[in-house]
Amino acid sequence: MRAESYNEAESFLNMVPRFTGKNPLEKTKKFYDYIQNRDGGAYSEARLGKIVHVAGTNGKGSVCAFLERICIEDGYRTAMFTSPHLVTTRERFRVDGMMISEEKFVYAFNRIEDMLEKYREDDPSYAPSYFERLFFMGLYIFTSEGVDITILETGLGGRLDTTNVIKAPKLCVITEIGYDHMEYLGSTIEQIAAEKAGIIKAGVPVVFCDRRSAVSGILRQKASECGCICHSVSKKDYKICEIQKKSIDFSVSSSYYGYCRFTINSTALYQVENAALAVKAAELLNINVSAVGAGIAAMKWSGRMEEILPRVYIDGAHNEDGIEAFAKTVKRCRPDIGESRCFLIFSAVRDKDCDSMVKLLTDTGVFTDYIVTRIPNERGIETDRLVKMFETHTDKNVHAFDKIDDALEYALTNRGDLGMVYIVGSLYLAGIVKAHAHML
Q: Which structural domain range is residue 351 located in?
């Protein structure tokens, strides 16, 4: 199907999951190779410049965004492919820090559709998944832009992820690994780490978050088997110096840059670790240190402790480790609001360990009111179940609204002149709130 407009292309893509599932990676590789050899190699991997491949459970999108901004500040033309999006599918494709236009999206959609039609003459059974289609669209867009550096974020896992069809990355980065998507990646942290480590390629340097010894052991072993040099980033490599009202000053000890002090324009404590990983990656890409500092300060990443309205913050944390990091930030950085109320709006999808997340949030002692709502799709957990979870862990006020708009309106109306509102639990929730916030 060819699309005449952006809405038509996006609507078609949104229907794809109903008709096709994930393909074996070998099948995806065959179509990838087919594209590589089209039009005299116009869309070949070599035209993506230096490829940085990023996997992990939490923080990988932020690490990509830090690294993108750092490279831009050093004069590189950059491309970045990330997931998921919050409001529009175009967010997944960025060139020089800007998401692509609707026209370019439609053109890429139709170009890939044309290639699929031709390819099916030899393999009529091939039906790319939603994520595969987007990845191939990104390949077409980025190779057409003459970029110097392409940053690719995995979708889920690593070893079998669609992005792992690439053959020659310049650098692999693996962020913090925790418990998430266990139905696909394994029930133990070692199994999950092994899946993430699947992006490691022979001889390609690896930067990784050295937080859990079991994870680090798996990553080092895989790197050793592939003949890769490992560069770990642990808490001993960075230090928070000062937390300002809306920023954090921190220092990093680097073998290439020496001792450096940087500023993140966010109060999210977890972004310091992500920035430190980006610094190490920039070091291996030989980026100028002044560009590193400027890039870290300039980075903005939607849905990560983002202030969308005065004293209204959304955060995309959606698993136990992410919620723990969010809770630490709120507990340490929340301003003094006197007698005003502090609301937490929460929702999640059914396949998450919601009870553990709720306990972490209530244990902060920060919030005066909890509001539960429902994500409007078949995966959203029911509000009555969430109410019972919160009432098990707190004696504070718990309110329930089936509509997210009503939950936000209630919090804004009742928080008081200095009151705060935090929204967390799902990227679906963050996206819906962001889409609605501009109308308030």
A: 306-437
